[in-house]
Amino acid sequence: MFTIRHEDTETRARTGTLELPHGNVSTPVFMPVGTNAAVKALTNDDLYEIGLEIILSNAYHLYLRPGMDVIKTTGGLHDFSGWRRNYLTDSGGFQIFSLSSLRKISEAGVKFRSHIDGSEHLLSPEKVVDIQTILNSDIQMQLDVCTSYGTSYKKALEALYTNNKWLSRAKQRWSEKQSEGYSGQFFSIVQGNFYKDLRERSAQAVIDADTPGIAIGGLSVGEPPELFNEYLSFTSALLPYDKPRYVMGIGTPDYILSAIENGIDMFDCVLPTRLARNGQALTHRGPLALKKQNYAFDICAIDDECDCKVCKNYSRAYMRHLFKSQEILFSMLVSYHNLYFLHSLIKNARLAIEAGYFTKYKQTFLKNYYGD
Q1: Whole-model pTM over 0.85
Q2: Structural domains of the chain sorted by starting position, each given as residue range(s) with its CATH number in brackets
Q3: Phi/psi at 367 (5° precision)
Q4: Which of 3, 76, 186, 296 could disulfide-link 174, Cβ–Cβ 3.0 to 4.6 Å?
């Protein structure tokens, strides 16, 4: 069940509560990515401490390793990983899309070779539902065909036909699993590439399917920012008011705030932890490359406006030392900070929506972030 709590008077931004099997989730919400049932460099206790209520894992990767037999034997993804809050699992459509040289798409499903050992597999819409049911996902995603920026109209139309057929089959299998006792929700995905008539047709298909939630796919796939914003606004306006909306694969403050402004409730990205492993911290004054020489003697916190435990206890000089020394602790600490930073950004956005000053909050944040 999804309940809208507050609405902004100037934009489509809103706050809400999503009721899921492993607890309620306050929206808007950023979901960190734990592809292999682990958010890189962080423990479950770290994630609880930050205040995260849901994380994303990937059915494709878990299907290949450790395999469904292992996870089924251990009682599902929550017992396997020890994470006691919610999981959203991605169907693997995007991962298979990125392995274009190793896969073949047909109406039956996706035939592909494992990037791990080269073994051949076929994932059908029904099998992906079965996999995510074994995982006991709190939210599972339909198998879809993701197309890249620059895809021709013809190929985008073909992908849309496939998506619509897969959606119908996947929803039917999910309904069967519900009757067998599975309690997780199922989200459909809007595609259509960068063609508005195809977006409209795809949106109508997911509306007709009447799934508990709807994701917007095919954005942040290489298109320029202005096109992202145009199609984000266009697509979100097509979707039902009362269902949770999820934009897949966005993690920068500008994209997140733009999504919130357009009534998006959920988003995910690998960016905060990936940036951390590469020496970059997110701050209220923009990204900070801690590996640079000019921080060698800097005794300031990573971000003097952040109250996370990393900023309270460690200096930029020490963090740079850890990075240059290739200490694992660097990735652990900066990953924690980056996720805390994004979680706080969104928590403050929720407060701004409820208090009626979201537009001002967004403008002020981005002005400071980009130094304009």
Answers
A1: yes
A2: 2-269 (3.20.20.105), 276-372 (no CATH)
A3: -60, -45
A4: 186
